[in-house]
Write a structure and sequence with these properties.
alpha+beta, 7 strands, binds flavin-adenine dinucleotide
Length: 289
Amino acid sequence: MDALDLVPQKQIDCLDKGFVKLIDVMPRIIPDGGTCDYAIAQMARVSYGAGTKTVNEDKGLIRYLMRHSHTSPFEGIELKLHVKLPIFVARQMIRHRTCSLNEISGRYSIMKDEFYIPSPDNIRKQSTTNKQGGDEPIDLELAKEYSEQIELMCDDSYKKYIEMLDAGVSREQARMLLPLNLYTEWYWKQDLHNLLHFLALRADSHAQQEIRVYAEAIIQLITPLVPWTIEAWNDYHPMRGALKLTRLEKEALYNSDICHDNVLDIDSKNSREKQEWNEKRDRLFKSIE
Ligand SMILES: Cc1cc2nc3c(=O)[nH]c(=O)nc-3n(C[C@H](O)[C@H](O)[C@H](O)COP(=O)(O)OP(=O)(O)OC[C@H]3O[C@@H](n4cnc5c(N)ncnc54)[C@H](O)[C@@H]3O)c2cc1C
């Protein structure tokens, strides 16, 4: 069957004029009733051999791979997306160097009159705790004034851009009149391992809200393609449901009133995962002694 048939909605709108659209996936042809997860297990089995009993269930194998950062089988899946996004969001996204992409050219094309105008209820106050971020909504009157100012500035910039093009200025230079909230578009191809790395960083609460919207949309698009992988990622990635402790944090936990006894157990039916927890629990509560 065609893997794209697993995805009910192939395009998700983002911000006021943007979107993420799923264009293609490898593997595209998958076994009937399956998902692209099968290809991850298939790739991993080369390591273990078909007869290995402990890794003979695809879902369990994928969870094991994710838990132990055995990442290369996830690189066997490729996703191609069409993304329309403001340039300042694109600047953040393109820092992720493991993609292959092709972007609309402002040297060849006249850029469209499309700018991201945040709605007044999404204008955020500068955070006092995080120098890079904004958090709470700002006073609504000020927010409205700011939104209006952006709109006026964009109208003016675009008018001057067209005037300069009409006067004969090259497209590659006239575009300097356009601000960072102009929308751009690209095709973005990335393997699943690196896409998950990008998504963990950019869906996280420390990332700017505008790029988080895109990260969440991509998660929604790819989940039907690789549901077991996304479940394992949510369970084991330290920026999703799991947590990474520093040595100091580990020691604080050790010195706290949290019970040190051996009945502290995890809610898992997987015997290997339970065994791994026993070993970690020993490391946490015994190694410091
Ligand atoms: C909340 C947040 C705030 C940020 N703020 C800033 C900022 O203020 N200024 C700024 O400049 N950046 C900033 N960044 C960008 C950040 O520093 C990274 O450049 C970006 O997140 C890409 O991460 P990456 O290199 O792990 O990802 P990718 O480029 O996708 O690379 C994936 C992995 O491949 C490996 N890799 C890729 N290329 C190389 C290479 N050349 N050499 C060695 N290993 C490589 C690394 O292991 C890397 O983790 C910010 C990112 C976040 C999430």
